[in-house]
Each structure stands twice: as C-alpha cells, then as structure tokens.
Design goal:
By secondary structure, this protein is of the alpha/beta class. The chain has two domains: about 20-335, Glycosidases (TIM Barrel, Alpha-Beta Barrel); about 370-409, Carbohydrate-binding module superfamily 5/12 (Seminal Fluid Protein  PDC-109 (Domain B), Ribbon), CATH 2.10.10.20. About 30% of the residues lie in helices and about 20% in strands. It contains twelve helices and 17 strands. It has helices spanning about 20-25, 40-45, 60-65, 100-110, 125-130, 135-150, 165-180, 200-210, 230-250, 255, 275-290, 330-335; strands at about 50, 70-80, 90, 95, 115-120, 150-155, 185-190, 220, 260-265, 265-270, 275, 295-300, 370, 375-380, 380-385, 390, 405-409. Strands 1, 2, 3, 4, 5, 6, 7, 8, 9 and 12 form a ten-stranded mixed β-sheet that branches. The chain has a three-stranded antiparallel β-sheet with strand order 14-15-17, with no helix packed on it. A two-stranded antiparallel ribbon has the order 10-11. Helix 8 links the parallel strand 7 and strand 8. Helix 6 (about 135-150) packs across helix 7 and helix 11 (about 275-290) packs parallel to helix 12. Keywords: Hydrolase, Signal. This is Chitinase. InterPro entries: CBM5/12 (IPR003610), CBM_sf_5/12 (IPR036573), GH (IPR017853), GH18_Chitinase (IPR052750), Glyco_hydro18_cat (IPR001223).
C-alpha cells in the first residue's frame, strides 16, 4: 500500500504433495485457526490499516467506541532507511526502542481490542530486500512479534519489492518460519490487484508460496489504483483471483474463497478512482456470500471527511475526499467480523456552529506543496506558510510550527 494509502495457521511442509496440500488447506477453510489466540481469526481478518506514527493518526479508542471495531492493522514495518536487517516503523523508528506504538497497543488492548502488524507496503526498503536469507528475515520479524506479543501479522508484498524474486523468496520463507515457530499465528499476505486478479509479479509470488509449501490464512488483493470503477470492477477481480488460486494450488472454488481476501481503499484512490460506502457494502456482500477469508481497507487515517469534502479534487492520507461521517468505512469491517456496529447518534436539531467566518482562500490540502507566503484556510482560520511545507496540518504544530495563524476568516 502506498504511503498515501501507504495489507493462518498450522505449518505446511515444503515436501507436501499436491493432494496432501489440498487436504491440509481444506482443514483450515473455516477461518477459525487463530480462535484460540487473541481475539480470534475473524477480527484479525477484518482489521483495517492504521498508521500509528504518520498521517495524523486517529485515536483508536475513539474509533472502537464509535464503531465497535476491535482490531487494527498497524503499518508498516520496514528495514532501516540507512540499511541493515533490523525492524523499524516506517524505516525511521526502531522497534527495539519503541515506546509510542507500544503505548497505542496497550490502550487498544485495555479496551478489549488487539492489533496485527503489517510488514512491507508500497515504497521504502523491505527487510526481505536487506536481510541475507529467509531465516534472518524471519528473525527480524520475530523481534516485532515478541516485543508486542502479536497474534497476527500481515505481509504486504508489492512494489518495488515484489519485482525482486530473491526478496520475495525471503519474505515467503520468513512467513513460513514464523508460522511454524509461533503456533496459532494468523498470517495474511496482501498484494496488488488487477482486473485479472493480480499481475505477473503477484502470480510469481503465489508460485513461490506453492514451491515453498506455504499456505497463509489468506492471500488478499488490493483492487484499486488499477483502472477500477466501483464495486463491480472489484468483485470481478476477486472472481478472477479466485480462479488463480484454484489453478495455482489445485483448490476448488470454495477452498480458494476460504483463503482469499479483499483489501480496499476508502473514498478517492491515488489514481482518482472513487469507492463509496455503497461500494464497500457491495463488496462486503460478495465477500460474506462467497465465504471469503478477509475484508480490510486502507486506511483508518483516511476514514473521516475532508474539508471541503472533496478535498479540492485531490487524494489525502488523512481523509477520504468523499462525503462521509467519521469512521463510516470502519463499520463494514465490524460487520465482516460478525458484529453489529453501534447506531450513529441522531443528527442535532440545530446545525453545528461554524468555527469561524467564510474563508476566501483555498482550503489546506495534505497533498499540496506550499511555499513561504502561501495562504490557506483550515478549521475556520486563515493560515500563512512560513516556509516550504507538505502534509503539516495547520494548527497542530504549535507556535513554532510552519503555519502562522492569521485569525478567523
């Protein structure tokens, strides 16, 4: 998953014959393989992505209270930007010395929830690229599992890493080792989606998994940023991906669906596609109707309305660029997990008061670049940039920040 948007158990032997492999995965098809650990597999399968250190992280506790959500997919674990084979958050924050993410996890668990960690994503340097083999890659990820006492992990294998066959062999091998060494660990694998299901590199990744005898709880595709137009194009891709899983692993359709997942993008995608609440409902109906194993999306950081709602026709990492109530999209994950989201509060009889007057300058956009002297409006105030900036929200950086508050509009 791009930085802007940047998504199971029992070990399989590499020597399993095709018939034995089919029997093995059929035994997992109920999706209950992680039920003895943490929240249970269904919640980990429904966990939306959340960047805990970037993209204006929302309060997970508030999301839990508003939606009933219990699981979060924390993103992304990468290799250090300066090189090496040790895990970091986003390439910059070493897992070994982390307290910020650990604190967020503690707060989530205190409310009865849990987290999974997602490794990889779009861009950055992945551990599979830097580590020398599958064993050292697994050892790096084991540090993350051990530190945070994880019951679930997601391998988000996409550009540029999945174009590197050696790196993908390291990642798939590491996933298999972690599965073997952590009984009950829920493992998902996420990759790019195309109209054909997944592209050439995604198909090579599936072949690598077959070669190594590795079967995760699910293989998920991301049907967006590829010329998709709403739910119909996404469900078509999911149908085609199911056929790929059947032909690769020798599964029937039901077994393939029981190991297939969906990872969407809420609102406006990086390439200007739009996925509304009704699109999410359509894909959710498809997923539950076909017995699919996972339903997630990128991201909770974006699951809130922009100002203005269309974000001036741009995509943001901190809001959806479509009209919505806060956490609208998270409620579809809650439904997939089998829970009923709490009802939204009734609308107030009086319209909410405006934090200020009408602004005559353009609204601030997280994706825009501003230079010294540029003026924007945000939360009813007018702001002037003191120097070059991008994705620094006015009003959040304090007196010494980049934005000078010029008062209410």
């Amino acid at each position: 998953m791009k930085p802007l948007r940047a998504l199971l158990c029992g070990a399989a032997s590499a020597a399993l014959a095709a018939a034995g492999l089919t029997a093995f995965v059929t035994g997992q098809a109920s999706g209950a393989t992680a039920d003895a650990a943490g929240l249970g597999g269904r919640w980990y399968a429904a966990a939306p992505y959340l960047m805990p250190l970037d993209n204006n992280p929302p309060d997970a506790s508030a999301i839990m209270d508003a939606t009933g959500l219990k699981a979060f997919q924390l993103a992304f674990v990468l290799a250090p930007n300066g090189g090496g084979c040790s895990p970091t958050w986003g390439g910059t924050a070493p897992v070994s010395s982390d307290t910020a993410v650990a604190g967020a996890i503690s707060s989530i668990r205190a409310k009865g929830g849990d987290v999974s960690a997602s490794v990889g994503g779009y861009g950055g340097t992945k551990l599979g690229q830097n580590c020398s083999d599958a064993a050292s890659t697994a050892a790096a990820y084991q540090q993350v599992i051990t530190k945070y006492q994880l019951k679930a992990i997601d391998f988000d294998l996409e550009e540029p890493e999945y174009e590197n066959t050696t790196a993908i062999a390291h990642e798939i091998g590491a996933a298999k080792i972690l599965q073997q060494n952590n009984p009950g660990l829920y493992v998902s694998v996420t990759t790019a989606g195309t109209a054909d299901g997944t592209g050439w590199f995604g198909k090579q990744m599936l072949n690598e998994a077959k070669t190594q005898g590795f079967v995760p709880d699910n293989f998920s595709i991301m049907p967006f940023d590829g010329g998709f137009s709403g739910a119909a194009a996404q469900t078509s891709a999911l149908t085609n991906f199911n056929s790929l899983l059947q032909s690769t692993f020798g599964w029937n359709a039901a077994t393939a669906y029981a190991h297939e997942g969906f990872s969407g993008m809420n609102g406006r995608s990086d390439t200007g596609e739009f996925f509304s609440q009704s699109d999410f409902q359509t894909v959710l109906d498809y997923a539950t109707g076909h017995g699919m194993a996972r339903f997630t999306f990128w991201s909770l950081n974006r699951d809130r309305q922009c100002s203005p709602p269309d974000n001036n026709g741009t995509t943001s990492g901190t809001c959806s660029s479509v009209p919505q109530a806060a956490w609208d999209f998270a409620k579809y994950s809650v439904k997939f997990a089998g829970a009923t989201p709490p009802s939204s509060p009734p609308p107030s009889s009086a319209p909410p008061s405006s934090p200020g007057g009408t602004c005559t300058v353009a609204a601030w956009s997280s994706g825009a670049v501003y230079t010294q002297g540029n003026e924007v409006s945000h939360n009813g105030h007018k702001w002037k940039a003191k120097w070059w900036t991008q994705n620094e929200e006015p009003g959040t950086t304090g007196e010494w920040g980049v934005w000078q508050d010029e008062g209410t509009c």
